[in-house]
Design goal:
Helix content is about 15%, strand content about 45%. The chain contains 1 helix and 11 strands. The strands form 3 sheets. Strands 4, 5, 7, 10 and 11 form a 5-stranded antiparallel sheet that branches. It starts with 6 loop residues before the first helix and ends with a strand.
Length: about 130
């Protein structure tokens, strides 16, 4: 006994396979663009302040900057954090200022849509020594 296949069912199955194959091959490849950032820390009043620089303006504004003090045991303690303004400027007021080694860090940030992700790389400032 032979079974005849319904032509509509066969056509539907073939179309479903073709469409699912297109969906898999048409998936966009993710492109990652890494952009360097640089943080500069000044030791003059108000201590501490500085600027984040980058070749891309999106990596300058609204970046998170953290200020750390190096501990005696080699660890570090977070003293404060802030966001950069539109020009990349930031400041963290430390009062009272004690002797030690200080360092500012700008965090990594990634954002993007439609297959392209822009990554603003993290950076750390030079160490600032306060006596």
């Amino acid at each position: 006994m032979t079974t005849k296949l319904n032509p509509k069912l066969v056509l539907t199955a073939v179309l479903a396979l073709a469409i699912s194959g297109l969906a898999v091959t048409a998936a966009p490849a993710t492109n990652t663009v890494k952009i360097n950032s640089r943080i500069i820390m000044r030791q003059t009043f108000p201590a501490f302040h500085g600027k984040v620089k980058s070749s891309n303006d999106a990596c300058v504004q609204d970046r998170v900057v953290k200020l750390f003090k190096k501990g005696r045991n080699g660890g570090r303690r977070l003293l404060g954090k802030t966001d950069t303004n539109g020009a990349g400027k930031w400041k963290v007021i430390v009062d009272p200022l004690k002797s030690g080694v200080y360092r500012a860090v700008v965090k990594r940030r990634a954002e993007g849509t439609a297959g392209t992700i822009f990554v603003c790389r993290r950076d750390g400032s030079k160490r600032a020594f306060v006596d």
